[in-house]
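Hi R.,

Here's the chain you asked about this morning:
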Amino acid sequence: MKLAIDCRMIDSSGIGTYIAQLVPYFLKKYPCLLLGTHEQCMPYVRMENVEFCYCPVKPFSLQEMFHFPQDILAAINNCDVYYTPYCNIPGGITIPIISTIHDVVFLDLKNLTSFAGRMARKIIYQRAVNLSSSLVTVSEFSKSRILANLHCKKTVTVAYSSVPDWMKAAQRDRPATEKTDTILFVGNIKQHKGLSVLLKAFMAARAEGLSAAKLVIVGNADNFRTGDTKTTEQINALPEDAVRFTGKITDQELLELYWQAKLFVLPSFYEGFGLPPLEALTCGTNVILSDLPVFHEVYQNFPVTYFETGNAEDLKVKLLSAYNLPSPATVPDTYSFKKTAAILLQLFETAAAGSASASVRS
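And the predicted structure, written out as tokens:
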């Protein structure tokens, strides 16, 4: 069996981590055609079972859907299965397709985009459902929302995400690191990440005993402020030394921020999985999460603290009570990309076998 793997989102935040970690496991089992740029596929080109196909076509572009290069399509269709780590699928693929839909947040939270934007995303999601032999998602919660929002009669398999293997290895070999008076937020500028709630709670907690605490936000200040007057006002009300934006940072710098922080907080209103809390726990940092069903699913039996979603007063109380807790002694080894890859490989094999049987019958 030969797999065609879309690597064009390897440098795209969480989805990029997801596919970058899975590719080596696929290569251990089968020959793979990797689609992407030289930079995206460089880590794998010297491994066994690799065939590289340069593909500069942008994901979610009209070219991808309607005018995908014929030479690349020929290479893909010479494989047995095509896998995309998201819901963008080139037009013209004739082999079985497996795709991962991480969440349908834009369909569930209608205030995140315009009606036209929501309908455009629904078309893309629905197209992935229609074209895929089977679908994968990252939690039972996301599976339930895919089934509720889309006309999906295909099999939807849950294959949880995980902490990157390099981060686990770094934690095992980490130097002695002192905790600093920092509370860490890793997210993006979308409203459902709940940064406004965290800022309000943090301001109140500083006034009630955490005066030395600093909030470190991974990202650029201008991005967080653009178009968000409420958050801008909250940031401006903080003392100058109370909040720090990191700007773009390396993986190693992020790892060190996890190691140093006393608390990691993810106050989201919606997630499909929520990976940064797992990264923080792996790095020995206590975690506070909003009281979402998906977090109770993913972090069942993990040493985390919950607060009432959207309730800044409750979050303030949890910040005060958890700030000086000892680091988590043990973290369950529930998730790994090895486990996730095994689930996907089984789906690939089933799809390829079904396609071969259909060819024989025809």
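DSSP finds 16 helices and 13 strands in the chain.

Let me know if you need anything else.
M.
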